[in-house]
């Protein structure tokens, strides 16, 4: 276990923003993770768990406690069961699973971050989310002071949400287990229209597994969503806002405002009679196009959902842009955008 004081955090995030940690501990085993968490809890010290740093917005003042960087490794296949240590690089793990001929996470290719973060956010893209394949999550329960194994149902997954996100101070993910599928070299059924169009198939058809993985990498790269240190469009936290899920009354009010502008908004059925619409569509139609902004933080030139650091931004620069966009969408369409990345020491 490695310990550093007054350690820079910006280089450990994909936004490359944020002040230093009072103390940075890097853990390479599950036992080290648990020991570090116990020590911080016993001392009553604030704790921030850091994986790949792809879903964090850290304040310019930094973090006044212990930052635990999880650097555990472990990729184990038993038939179609995949177990990943929390510190495994997610994009690499997806590529290895596809290389082994297993389907179930191929449309989640190229997403930055660590495996341990995927159940927290119920990571999803291109019609797939980890809730569809996660069977168990092994975590340290800080409240009970013990390692527990939670089933898929106990994780309480929903759109970009989970039990871990709902109670962020309780669990630290150690390992994630997936039930994948050997579909004779084919992908899981294509659920996303853009992918179906790419392959010239209808939705729910299967395509070549490796081709599906490669296609998603290409689509993500075209939107600046695959990390490239030389490309400031990738200096982001990915999609900054979640797609709004509206109740019947909210949705009716939104449709009326859209109709006043003679606009037809995207709509997707959601549970409990709700309707999901597109945050990217809202941002663009509210007047914030690709590349919007003249300061050191702007929208990506490739995708309106990504707020980017052009190289010299501060966290406050980024948040000022985020607030401008959130307020503009609310004024135009009466819809409140919610940030997807976790805020540390700051808020919108």
UniProtKB/TrEMBL annotation:
Pfam families: FAD_binding_4 (PF01565), MurB_C (PF02873)
EC number(s) given by UniProt: 1.3.1.98
The UniProt record lists the keyword ATP-binding: no
Keywords attached to this entry: Cell cycle, Cell division, Cell shape, Cell wall biogenesis/degradation, Cytoplasm, FAD, Flavoprotein, NADP, Oxidoreductase, Peptidoglycan synthesis
Cofactor(s) of this protein: FAD
Highest taxon in the source lineage: Bacteria
Residue ranges of coiled coil: none
PROSITE patterns the UniProt entry points to: FAD_PCMH
One Gene Ontology MF term: UDP-N-acetylmuramate dehydrogenase activity
Domain FAD-binding PCMH-type: 17-183
Pathway terms, separated by semicolons: Cell wall biogenesis; peptidoglycan biosynthesis
Cited InterPro entries: FAD-bd_PCMH, FAD-bd_PCMH-like_sf, FAD-bd_PCMH_sub1, FAD-bd_PCMH_sub2, MurB, MurB_C, MurB_C_sf, Oxid_FAD_bind_N
Catalytic-site annotation from UniProt: 160, 239, 340
Reaction(s) the record says it catalyses: UDP-N-acetyl-alpha-D-muramate + NADP(+) = UDP-N-acetyl-3-O-(1-carboxyvinyl)-alpha-D-glucosamine + NADPH + H(+)
Cross-referenced Gene3D superfamilies: 3.30.465.10, UDP-N-acetylenolpyruvoylglucosamine reductase, C-terminal domain, Uridine Diphospho-n-acetylenolpyruvylglucosamine Reductase, domain 2
Cellular localization per UniProt: Cytoplasm
Function as written in the Swiss-Prot or TrEMBL entry: Cell wall formation.
Family affiliation: Belongs to the MurB family.
Protein name: UDP-N-acetylenolpyruvoylglucosamine reductase
Natural source organism: Kitasatospora purpeofusca
Lineage, opening ranks: Bacteria, Bacillati, Actinomycetota, Actinomycetes, Kitasatosporales
Gene designation per UniProt: murB
